[in-house]
Amino acid sequence: MRIFVTGGSGQTGPTVLTELVAAGHTVTALARSDASAARLEALGATPHRGSLDDLDSLRSGAEGADGVLHMAYGGDYADPDALARRDCGAIEALGQGLVESGKPLIITSGTLVMRGGRVSTEQDAPDPDSVVAVRVAGERACLGFADQGVRAGVVRLAPTVHGPGDYGFIPALIAAARRAGVSAYIGDGANRWPAVHRSDAAGLFRLALEKAPAGSVLHGAGESAVTIKSVAEQIARTLDIPTVSMTLEQASEHLGNPFLARVFSLDVPVSSEHTQTLLGWVPKHATLLEDLRTGDYFTPQASIRAEEVWSPHHDTHQP
Questions:
Q1: 39 near 14, Cβ under 8 Å?
Q2: What's the rounded Cα separation, in Å, for the pair 37 and 30?
Q3: What is the DSSP letter of 145?
Q4: CATH number of 2-159+196-222: 3.40.50.720, 3.40.50.620, 1.10.260.40, 3.60.110.10?
Q5: CA dihedral sign, ordered 297, 131, 223, 5
Q6: pLDDT single digits (tens) 158-211
Q7: Among 1.10.3470, 3.90.25, 2.30.110, 1.10.10, what is the CATH number of 162-194+224-268+285-309?
Q8: Beta-bridge mates of residue 148
Q9: Which of 31, 109, 137, 177 is the Cys-Cys partner for 37 at CB 3.0 to 4.6 Å?
Q10: Strand 192-197 vs strand 160-162: parallel, antiparallel, or unpaired?
Q11: What is the C-alpha to C-alpha distance for residues 155 and 198, in angstroms, rounded to an integer?
């Protein structure tokens, strides 16, 4: 297949591109800059110059492809409505290039759109009051194309997509633990998160493009329910520091970011049983705790990266 990809040079994108190329697909990927284009070429993809705001470029990229994978997301996080409009505009442009073709349009969302306090399945409706409810509009925009002859589907990724070079949520916990000399969890720490290794997520994206039925909602979770306390304890063992329980307010100060504290307080387990059965997807790479024990999370480079990404002035640190 000739696949058009947005977000190919981000954190998860390079692993996805490598997976697609290794499977024999021809990849063209959106590039906003010369640096992005060079990185995409090194991964075996053909750069397609443009941005999420260049709707004509997105539409032409989709029209020349046998399928589209939309992973890019960004903008002004202080304005959620603008974020949603930008994402929906990009999805509409991509989908319009595929109408009545039977070709796939797969977009990315997150399992944090689901209701907390229970194990959510792919069949459950997203929570309009979730911490990342801004993603729901994009899901709906994509799935609307299933009635227009497009094999549209949504992949909801776990909040932690772990692996080498991770600069997401878990590195923020590690950076705070280094600063404070304690590894923290909120309350009793029994709240649960799903997790997925980046290479397993890449395999899921490939399978979704190749064979997910129109209207599919898929959960990219290799693990359903990792407790935040178990993560904090593994961080503490590696850094040789104590673990402590904090209130939400204390955690906000500890992490230097109220949004992070809110996210780490959530109990949001999900099931991916339907996804695995539907596509034959079998997560097989390291678990989150295994990655914390053997990966690169505690290198000096990881600490620098986490501090940069989660500084108060950085604008791309929300899911």
A1: yes
A2: 8
A3: G
A4: 3.40.50.720
A5: negative
A6: 999 999 989 889 999 999 999 999 999 999 999 999 999 999 999 999 999 999
A7: 3.90.25
A8: none
A9: 31
A10: parallel
A11: 13
